[in-house]
Design goal:
Helix content: 10-25%
Order of helices and strands: EHEEEEHEEE
Number of domains: 1
Number of helices: 2
Length: 141
């Protein structure tokens, strides 16, 4: 397992990108749309290689809840060998599964659990293209 990145909710993507890219010197790694309509932008610190994901959710998304200052930590992201197996193990340990695993874009199994204090943890594993089996970790969403 590797702790891959931290995801934070932002209210204005352009303003946040200016702050993190121009102000702090992070570099953009990639961006995309989530299946429920949200937008993510992956950033990386060129020195430490720590990754930060900026997330924006539309109001009609199930994750588009009102934003409260100080509650912007959206989730922590973990790459694992088998997301579904780890989520099931955590469920048996009493963890609350807040989003059941789903296959995102045919490439990643992704699901979310809560830690004991309610922080969401994204658990993902890539799917090997030819066999449909889970492969080794490769990177964040």
């Amino acid at each position: 397992m590797s702790i891959t990145y931290a995801g934070i909710r932002v209210t204005d993507l352009d303003r946040s990108l200016r702050f993190y890219l121009e102000g702090l010197g992070l570099r953009e790694r990639g961006r995309g749309q989530m299946s429920h309509g949200g937008t993510f932008v992956g950033l990386e610190d060129p020195e430490s290689h720590f990754q930060l994901e900026l997330n924006v959710y539309p109001r009609d998304s199930p994750y588009g809840t009102p934003y409260a200052v100080g509650e912007g930590l959206d989730h922590l992201g973990l790459d694992v060998v088998d997301a579904r197996a780890l989520i099931e193990r955590l469920r048996r340990m009493g963890a609350r599964v807040v989003v059941e695993p789903w296959l995102e874009a045919g490439k990643y199994w992704i699901g979310f659990v809560e830690d004991p204090d309610g922080i969401w943890i994204e658990i993902q594993s890539p799917v090997a293209p030819a066999t449909g089996t889970v492969s080794a970790p490769s990177g964040p969403s």
